[in-house]
Design goal:
The protein has about 325 residues and is mostly helical. The protein has 16 helices and 2 strands. Helix 4 packs across helix 6 and helix 11 crosses helix 12. The chain is globular and about 60 Å long.
Length: about 325
């Protein structure tokens, strides 16, 4: 007996829909081009399928109980934290996001490559989100404002949403003209995987060539990649979740940014956040001589060797506007 036309559903079967979403999520693990996201999706919910690699990276840190510890593995983890933190603060932030100095295309790409190893996505994505942060700081349009959205959302929740995965290409037209940066942004998983593999192979080689060091392939992978990368991520995002809550306000800004010495030490100078929000155009974020800004010192050193140039200073009128210490 034929089925009446009005009883036939045009909606796809649930299994087909779920398979489609699963395939899209798996594809986006390797190709993060989300410009063709479905219309009508507000993107505010956490995309759990795409978040799996990020969550797995945290769980992998518990493998330290199986692989053990050695001075060389910890030293590599600390060194990679420092080098990659500088790539994030000096280049992803002060260069790509704010253009506070100039450099060659080769140096630009080299530090974009190091920044991509941080598992904080590509340089274009990072710069676009940060420029929007300054545009809408501590308003409903600021996706990682602790004032509006609370601690956990500002610290990590926003990073895992469908909206968070997208890149606002209108905000980075000056950077999007570089095909090598677009490639790093689109395939942002490639560099972290290569780093993880290199560390695993290094540990395996040291285990045979220098057994007195007491390290192994698994140990170097867990400490050098997973522990170092997770620590790096959470240190970076404290500037979202904590630097708008705890510290002193030297300048009257329209947001709730604050200066915090401890966060500045942890993030190589980013903790002087109220300074930065008042005048983001300076390469220096520690405006006073005693405000430790390791990123600025490193960039000054690079300038001596002509790797970077035209570092933008803190204008005299900014210093005159400051109040208190």
């Amino acid at each position: 007996m034929p089925v009446p036309p009005h009883t036939v559903s045009n909606r796809p079967k649930p299994t087909t829909l779920s398979r489609g979403r699963l395939l899209a999520a798996l594809t986006h693990w390797f190709d993060t081009d989300t410009r063709n996201a479905s219309a009508g999706d507000d993107g505010l919910g956490i995309d759990w399928m795409r978040a799996i690699p990020f969550l797995a990276m945290h769980l992998a840190c518990f493998a330290v109980f199986w692989v053990g510890i050695s001075p060389i593995a910890v030293a590599v983890a600390v060194a990679l934290y420092a080098v990659r933190m500088f790539a994030i603060t000096g280049f992803y932030h002060r260069y790509f996001s704010h253009r506070t100095f100039r450099t060659s295309r080769v140096v630009q790409f080299a530090f974009a490559l190091i920044g991509a190893s941080c598992v904080q996505r590509g340089p274009l994505w990072w710069a676009a989100h940060h420029r929007n942060h300054h545009r809408h700081a501590d308003t409903a349009h600021d996706v990682h404002s602790p004032v509006v959205h609370g601690f956990w959302r500002s610290h990590v929740g926003w990073f895992l949403t469908r909206q968070g995965f997208r890149t606002d290409w209108d905000r980075i037209r000056d950077l999007a003209r570089y095909p090598e940066l677009r490639w790093l942004d689109r395939y942002d998983i490639v560099v972290p995987i290569l780093l993880a593999v290199a560390l695993f192979l290094l540990g395996g080689w040291l285990e045979v060539a220098a057994p007195d060091l007491g390290t192994s392939a698994g140990q170097m992978l867990v400490w050098g990649f997973f522990v170092s990368t997770v620590a790096l991520f959470h240190a970076t995002v404290t500037i979202n979740s904590l630097a708008h809550r705890f510290g002193k306000r030297r300048f009257d800004t329209r947001d709730d940014s604050r200066n915090n010495l401890w966060l500045a030490l942890l993030t190589f100078g980013e903790g002087w956040h109220n300074n930065h929000h008042f005048f983001p155009g300076s390469v220096r974020q520690g405006f006073r001589w005693w405000e430790i800004d390791l990123t600025y010192y490193a960039l000054r050193t690079m300038a001596v060797f002509r790797l970077v140039h035209d570092l933008k200073p803190v204008p005299a009128w900014v210093a005159a506007k400051a109040r208190g210490g």
